[in-house]
Amino acid sequence: MRLADADLAYLPAGTISAIVLGIALIPLRDFTSASNLTFPFLALTIAIAELGGPRAALATALGSALSLDFFLTKPYLQLTIEGKHDVIAFLGLAACGLVAAAFSSRRRRMIALLRVERRQLDLLCAALSRLETGGPIELVLTQVLDSTRTALTLPALAVRDEHDRIIAASPVGHGPRVPARLLRPDTLLPEENAPRVVPGPGLPLPDDGGRIPLVVRGRRVGWLDVWGSSARVSTDARHTLSAIGRLAGVMLLNRQRGRAGED
Question: Could you give the angle at which helices 137-152 and 84-133 cross, rounded to 10 degrees?
Fold first, then answer.
């Protein structure tokens, strides 16, 4: 089951659980005030927020407030509240539930960002491992480009040498046409009339392709050609792609030096 499907399953589950909890607490309503009975509902809302996310937490919070009102505050079995303290308990429960939902949303976003960063770090580690393993540069770079394209969800990538000959491409066979647009190696933004800082949400890479010069020790050894889509590419993803380009540049330089040594 996908995460989104699992989250949706908690929408009715949280609401039904709030109703069941209200019924289960009916025997206690004559022994304590409604404000004391809000704590189990709060615990339920926090648990649903952890398991099902902000939407499920919001539904549970609203269901808990209504369940408290209907089953546990006078007049019973009506959606009206008689006592002032019960009104405060009702509003307090609803407010705390909304706070739990808001924090759950923030936490979910942070977890999603951490997963993306972990995936990009794994990509760089895998690229370094392939570089250390050795082998034909065409094969190694093809594997690196395949992993990069999958991790960053890019349409295509290609590495060319200093004479614009294709060394590796992903998917294989892509990139017969050389992109006309140059991209800055640090931000991957177009050279012409582009900001020097990527906006927070990111910007799409050119769908008609862009060229990143691969420069090692002040010497251009090749190009990394990238093709984007309408999807935004974050600053972290751009830094990862730039690092992959630097690794490719080092490999191209070593290739040139090896050929020079053979000559």
Answer: 170
